[in-house]
Design goal:
Layout: E1 13-16, E2 32-35, H1 41-44, E3 54-55, H2 60-78, H3 81-89, E4 105-109, H4 113-124, E5 128-133, E6 143-146, H5 147-156, E7 160-163, H6 177-181, E8 193-196, H7 205-214, E9 219-222, E10 242-244, H8 254-271
Parallel strand pairs: 1-2, 2-3, 4-5, 4-7, 5-6, 7-8, 8-9, 9-10
The chain binds NADP nicotinamide-adenine-dinucleotide phosphate (NAP) and glyoxylic acid.
Length: 284
């Protein structure tokens, strides 16, 4: 267990989460790398990363946890909980009109192992659910958009935007002023909501803050940030319409993840086959 690795030449497989750059390059016998997480942006940022197969985590436990986070935050904004929590602090007894889930259009950016599961669960709750991905998809009950051409119509029909994209050269900074101003402004919630549990590098926080201040964005739930931990100076900590969580939307325990990886190693040793391989060119 790092940092006490013994003889580096004895190590066939590395199971890693955000290792220090250069550590893996010093393992001469390495056959494969297993990322103990879904996103591999930090690994691919290491120019010395060995060119052995790189597999990422795709795991039902992780998908379940992420969907819990997404469903919880969609419902929190849908049921106007920030407003009711503020009223409770003032001992104010006042109801507000509550739209039906079917009147609220949720859009999930990224329809991979996590986004597709969250979209399905939101659809089961009755939300008018759409998704956006790089390649064309067909998912029962989900209105699927894809590619550059699909982005604007997807955003234009979205009241609650859930971001579950990987951070790649093509997606970094995608949540900017332009994207936020393309979200639906005519929705029943009185303004669009952003939920980002993908990566902080996807978002331009200054643009999110400006959109919240101008009312272009009504509220946000953010699990990931440009800089983590979120610096004390960030206005996002104190914004009344922002929920901050410390990058733990889908914090899976090591054990369920390692079980899947041990299975992967057994199959790889017997047949040379590895699943969930990262395409380094694509960046995810
Ligand atoms: P995944 O299975 O690789 O899915 C990624 C999705 O994003 C795919 O649908 C992909 O489209 C889409 N995509 C990628 N680049 C795109 C582009 N340029 N334009 C449009 N769509 C694009 O990944 P996952 O397992 O669902 O995980 C998603 C991300 O969640 C991870 O990369 C990680 O950053 C984040 N995450 C966060 C936490 C947390 O605790 N906050 C936990 C786990 C994961 P295609 O389907 O067409 O390929
Ligand atoms: C967590 O952020 C992950 O990518 O698994």
């Amino acid at each position: 267990v790092w940092p006490d690795l013994g003889d580096p030449a004895d190590i066939d497989y590395a199971l890693v989460w955000m290792p220090e750059p250069g550590v893996l390059a010093n393992l001469p016998a390495l056959k494969a790398i297993f990322n103990l997480g879904a996103g591999v942006d930090h690994l691919l940022a290491d120019p010395s990363l060995p060119k052995v197969p790189l597999a990422r985590t795709v795991d039902p436990d992780m998908a379940m946890r992420m969907s819990e986070y997404v469903v919880f935050h969609v419902l929190l904004h849908h049921r106007q909980h920030l407003l009711y929590a503020a009223q409770q602090r003032r001992q104010q007894w006042q109801g507000h009109p509550q739209p039906a889930a079917s009147e609220v259009r949720v859009g999930v950016m990224g329809l991979g192992s996590l986004g597709a599961d969250a979209a399905r669960k939101l659809s089961l709750l009755g939300f008018a659910t759409a998704g956006w991905s790089r390649s064309e998809k067909s998912l029962a009950g989900i209105d699927c958009f894809h590619g550059t051409d699909g982005l604007k119509p997807f955003l234009n029909r979205t009241d609650i935007l859930v971001v579950l994209l990987p951070a790649t050269d093509r997606t970094k900074g995608i949540i900017d002023a332009r994207l936020l101003s393309s979200l639906a402004q005519d929705g029943v919630l009185g303004g669009p909501v952003l939920i980002n549990a993908g990566r902080g590098a996807l978002q331009v926080e200054a643009d999110i803050e400006a959109a919240l201040d101008s009312g272009t964005l009504k509220a946000a739930s953010l699990d990931v940030f440009e800089e983590e931990p979120l610096p004390p100076s960030s206005p996002l900590w104190h914004h009344p319409n922002v929920v901050v969580t410390p990058h733990n939307a889908a914090d899976s325990g090591a054990l369920p993840l390692c079980r899947g990886i041990l299975e992967q190693i057994r199959t790889f040793e017997s047949s040379g086959i590895l699943r969930h391989l990262v395409d380094r060119q694509r960046g995810y």
